Amino acid sequence: MLDQMNSEEIVSEDTPELRVFFGDLRKMTSIEVADGEVSLIVTSPPYFNAPFDYPDLFPSYEDYLGLVRSFASQSRRVLGKGRICAIVTDDMLVKEETGSRGRRYPLVADTTRIFLDEGFLYRDKITWIKPAGYTRISRRSGVVLQHPYPMYFYPDNIQESILLFQNGEFDYSLLKDAPKKILESSKIDTAQLNKERWNLTVWNITNVLPTPGRVEAGIAAFPEEIPRRFIKLFTMVGETVFDPFAGSGTTLKVARELGRKGIGYEIDVELKKIMRKKLGGENFIMEERDGAKRLRKSLQNRIQHQRSVAKPLVPRLIL
What we know:
With 319 residues, the chain is α/β, with parallel strands linked by helices. It has a single domain (2-309), classed as Rossmann fold (3-Layer(aba) Sandwich). Helix content is 28%, strand content 20%. It contains ten helices and eleven strands. The protein has helices at residues 61-78, 107-117, 142-146, 173-176, 180-185, 190-195, 225-234, 250-257, 272-279, 296-309, and strands at 18-22, 38-43, 79-89, 92-95, 102-105, 121-129, 159-166, 202-204, 240-243, 261-266, 284-288. Strands 8-6-7-3-2-9-10-1-11 form a nine-stranded mixed sheet, sandwiched between helices. Strand 2 (38-43), helix 1 and strand 3 (79-89) form a beta-alpha-beta unit. The radius of gyration is 20 Å and the shape is globular.
């Protein structure tokens, strides 16, 4: 953090340290991530029982919200005063076993309420728009084409929400007291900001497409451009970025490329090999902690099963 830096701590050409822990975030302690150690959180929690990512992962929606509450509590503990937590999430449509239609769960509203109750300030919400030519589920809007009458309209979703919460007010005098070399190396490229429209609450960014052979195959990874923007906008060179749902390690990879330190927490130990491949090199540590599970293979089996038994879309079935 800025108030802990001095001129000898300016980042060198060496790769900053990355630390990855495989375990249950709800059991994370200050031994892994110290109080106030983190300058920015960029992450995407699991989507509640998303059929193409996390089918039946949580026994109930309340169980899922329990994870979000723990996430908010841990974030409040590890974030420095006034620092930012950026969460990629969105409302989730899940087909109920007892019904023919999907039920929409208000992840955005419930996550916001939980973080506010934890004491965070609600700083902003950015809408991430994906290319219109690619949608994860594209049959919904086709219902009204087959039945062009009122009440048959269901839009395709090409957006996700990015919620920004702040851990209290930031002391801007810390910027004035930062070493000049760090301050200059952390300066935001305002020409790029304006050209790529970072200054808007709508970001048009291509999502990670399911192309063959990609490192993140079978993983709900977000594009590197998302953590890249937030790391540049909210941290100084040499500070620490944390991803409590690290997945394949996208946030950590970008943090290292931008001269920041990175900490990741991930429950699925089966992602270790993929994360090593994505991060490359040797200048990072990986350790297992309490609560680590083997999930990837079982989730992929569930996904394949759901696809094999999927029925053709009819007006009463909304996927």
